[in-house]
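Re: that chain you flagged

S.,

Sorry for the slow reply, it's been a week of failed gels. I finally had a moment to sit down with the sequence you sent. For the record, here it is as I used it:
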Amino acid sequence: MSKVILKKVEKVYENGFKAVHGIDLEIKDGEFMVFVGPSGCAKSTTLRMIAGLEEISGGEIWIGDKLVNDLPPKERGIAMVFQNYALYPHMTVYENMAFGLQIAKVDKEEIDRRVKEASKKLEITDLLDRKPKEMSGGQRQRVAVGRAIVRKPKVFLFDEPLSNLDAKLRVSMRVKITELHKQLKEEGQTATMIYVTHDQVEAMTMGDRICVLNKGKIMQVDTPVNLYNKPKNRFVAGFIGSPAMNFIIGKLIKSSQHMIFSFGDKKSLVIPQRFEEKLLDYIGKDVVLGIRPEHISVNEINESKPIQGKIGIVENMGNEQFIHFEIGGVSLVSRTELKKYEILKYNDVKDFYFDTEKIHIFDKETEINILL
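Prediction finished late last night. Pasting the structure tokens below so you have them in one place:
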């Protein structure tokens, strides 16, 4: 078993600053878990506490069936891949990958077998005689991953391993690490991975589940699809997705026929009837409506009543465009397929249609998603 359990884990520094606020989390055996959040949200601190590189101030950390609070890193059954590779510059690739096993006094033939097996998986067999300075950043990172694989740890820990690479390399390494996880699982090897990133694209494409952190607290733990479609609060809704979800502050009003969301300068949207029951306690109150950019279309007629908006900047992305526009003093973004629309110009006034079946409504004070 290589599951990881955090029970009420805290981190308080000597100056009294509380970085981690009683985190409870269970990472399943063989799961690829991603920690994501803005800078300073304690994702790396949490990872380092699991690794034993940072002392915990309270709570328990379990790896497998062992409480590891007081165990040094080498006895926790973990292998860590760092952002800066952390390779020995005077050693060859082979020596870097073999070093940890030599210290553990693993048989020489077993070391050779493991190094060659890992290098084949990562397609670095032809680099085994090179030193780190003779390789690119992407190659060095593969070596760092290979060094982790040969140890056959219970848990792999990745601390923003791709942030030093250029965009193209990041994509290829992202795919390689995801493939590696699936390969290890198919081969029946331990494949529990915890991966820290600030990049939501990495999180969404790599993780079986994602743990969204903010200010040392867990905001939501869920699958990528659920995080995107069913965010529990405004923070998760705004953090996951690019361009970010649109938020509009307004008031819920009940007419004789419909429930209305009123905002800006006498603008309004009709709330679908299926949402009304959950919103009854909020009638007459200010709430925050959230809608993703792809659920606002321009000049494409649907069942909703259009609202006129003034075009600002249009970002052409090749196959789609991000249309920044304004309605009643509220700035919004629409994400549309480029082929469907005419060329839009700055200050053009167009009809915008909101797919109100896809909206989210958040409590203005607590920021919870009322519709969940």
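What I noticed first: The CA atoms of residues 87 and 96 lie 7 Å apart.

Talk soon,
D.
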